[in-house]
């Protein structure tokens, strides 16, 4: 394992070096939070693919392939569909807004006052997303170093917190680009063909497994529908995803770069399912389907290649973890803390760029410590991820898409939608269970009903607010926003 260890150590050292280099570039709020909005198509595509394809997509995607066969690709496939929908229909308009958070978009559209409540819901989503990625370090480092769970989480989490705190989005962009390359080589070009060959090829796989393993809909129609509802729609509204859209250099980069990344996700989904299916042939009686990835890597790959593929899994986890961490810190600072502080200290001077960078850097560090502590305390990755996406879709999907698509929506309707949908999801998860489908179904319906009823029952959004909103969507508004909320019209 010495060669494999060397590969991993070089990879981790490289991540820290990227963080140090990014620190030299992140000298303003824009540079630190959205990489100066200067990413071209190549870097944008690579980093967008890196953040959406995390540990759940890699380890979990192979596990679903092990359990259900080719139809296990549907979870990651719906992530790719969501990214494609975001890129084709919404990304250009989102990029033109020149904001830093989803809540700032809601304030722009509805005329203020929606930010703090929506920020709390988005913060809870990004926190749980970062926690689930951090928990996944335990699986990888256990295979690598036979390390106990807590030490593995602290080691992996500390490296991500270090490079994210140093350089913000520039560090994360650089590391994500490296992680994208490592994932492509490790999973698509090495593990996929080796797994198929070791399993005897597709003909042998078909001969040894039940026919439902090769049924595209074998996982079940209800499961596929739930994946679409949670992951496809979740891709449209998550702060971690929008913050990457904000890094695009222009409309075409956001649209075409995101389309390339979404297409890559579809290929990655199928690859994970095929690897899992091959693992089922090789190891038919694993106690846990999620062990399929680590088992096939540990037992079937040659020295050196094994280290690179494990680095690919580590890259998948780190890219999602760092993206969720900076999103969580950005929301906590810009949407919650800055607004609450502004409400109590109206005479405070606006901070300069260096103060903004120091403040956001401090929030990443604090949120990183919270994420690591929460990851140590929790055990179930699937439950944490389900809570995150249920809150996101049930609480924020309707007011965000409603604001983009329906001009009659009002701030009162948006607030009612967030509160009713969020509370309904939480209450239904307590009643039906966290992993049940009903919480997101009924939570989303209640959010939609509240949005429509309250919006129609209240005065339309002020014409001046809508005019300013249309100007920003067209790319003709203020080039940058401060972290202060947009004031409501008098």
In short:
The chain has 490 residues and is mainly alpha-helical.
Architecture overview:
The protein has 490 residues and is an all-alpha fold. Helix content is 78%, strand content 0%. The chain has 20 helices and no strands. Helix 11 packs across helix 17 and helix 15 crosses helix 16. The C terminus is likely disordered.
Features of the shown structure:
490 residues; mainly alpha; globular
Question: What assembly state would you assign to the polypeptide chains in this entry?
Answer: single chain
What structural class do helix, strand and pairing data support?
mainly alpha
Distance between the termini: 68 Å
* Overall form: globular
Along the chain, the helix and strand elements come as HHHHHHHHHHHHHHHHHHHH
What's the β-strand tally? 0
Biggest sheet character: none
Strand content: under 5%
Percentage of residues in helical conformation: over 70%
What is the topology?
Elements lengths: L1 H24 L3 H6 L6 H12 L2 H14 L5 H23 L5 H9 L4 H21 L1 H9 L3 H50 L2 H8 L12 H17 L1 H7 L5 H32 L9 H9 L4 H40 L8 H25 L3 H25 L5 H22 L5 H20 L5 H11 L17
Helix pairs in contact: 1-9, 1-15, 3-9, 3-12, 3-13, 3-15, 4-13, 4-15, 5-11, 5-13, 6-7, 6-17, 7-15, 7-16, 7-17, 8-9, 9-13, 9-15, 9-16, 11-17, 12-15, 13-14, 15-16, 17-18, 17-19, 18-19
